[in-house]
Amino acid sequence: MRINKNIKKSLILTIGLVAGGLYTSTHNIYAAEREVVRAETLNVRKGPSIEESKIESLNKGTVVEILEKNNGWNKIKVAENEGWIHADYTSNEKGKVTANKLNVRKGESIEEEKIDSLSKGTDVEILEVKDNWFKITSEDKKIGWVSEEYILTETQAKQLEKEASVAKKATSQNNNKVESNNDENNNKEVQSTPQNNNTKEDETITSNNNNGRSMTVNASAYSGHTITATGTTPKWGTIAVDPSVIPYGTKVYIPKFDRVFIAEDCGGAIKGNKIDIFMNSEAECNSFGRQNIEIQILG
C-alpha cells in the first residue's frame, strides 16, 4: 500500500478528564509525540488541572500531537486552540510496515546509520514525529527512525476502510444506474467509427473527451508497491491522491501523458493538490522527479 509523505500525519491531541495536578514551572517540552485517545470521550481543559474550565471534548480514536507534559497532564493542539488532557487516557499511535523491507535508522535522515530492518506487516509503535519521519519501537523493542511513507497507522487504516466502504457503495449505485441506462438503450442503433473502436478510455483519450474540471497539481512518482489503498494492484494508470480532494475511483485525464488515470491509492504525503503517479520502474520515477502539471477531473 502506498504510504506517502504528506492523508499520512494523523497527529496526537489528548484531553483532560480525571485527577488533578497543579501547574508549576517545572515541566518538560516534548517534540511531536503522537498518541490516540482511548477513552470514549476525553475533556480538553484550559490548564493542567481538573479544576480548569473545559474547552472541548475528544472522541475515542482521535489522534493528537503532544506539545508539552506536566505532572500527568499533556498539552495538545486542537484545531486552532491549545488545551490540556490527562495522560492516563491516551496511548501511543500504532502502525504496520507496508514496504517489503524497511530500514530503521539512528536518526531522521537516510544519511543516518542503519540499525535494523523491518519486514512488511511488522507492528510498530510511534513514539515521535519529525518532518516526514517516525520514531518507532517494534516487537524487538529496538528504537529508531523510519520514513513515515511506509507506515500505515491504525488511524489511517480505519479511515481507509471507511472510505473504501463508501467508494464500494457508490460504485454499486453507479453500476445500477448503468444497467438501467443500458436497458433503455437496447433498442437504439449505435454507430461507431474505426477510430472509436480502437480507442480505450482506460488507456488514452482525445481532446474531444477532456472536458473535465482542470487543476494544477504537484506530481511525483512511485513504483514497486503490491497493493493500493482500495485493494487493487497498482499499474501504469494508477495514481495516489488525497481522497478528500479527488475521491477514490475518479477518472483523471493527464494531458502530459494523454492518458486517463484512476484514483485508487493514497499516501501520507499526498495532501491537497498533490498526486503520485505509479510507474513501472524506479528509473522512470527518478526521471520524472517532481513537477507541477495540469490535470482534468473527469468524474
TrEMBL record:
Q: Which PROSITE patterns match?
A: SH3B (PS51781)
Q: Residue limits of the SH3b domain?
A: 32-94
Sequence segments annotated as region (Disordered): 164-217
InterPro entries per the UniProt record, alphabetical: 3D_dom (IPR010611), 3D_YorM (IPR059180), Cell_Wall_Dynamics_Protein (IPR052354), RlpA-like_sf (IPR036908), SH3-like_bac-type (IPR003646), SH3-like_dom_sf (IPR036028)
Matching Pfam families: 3D, SH3_3
Q: Where is the composition biased (Polar residues)?
A: 205-217
Protein's name according to its UniProt entry:
SH3 domain-containing protein
What is the source species?
Romboutsia sedimentorum
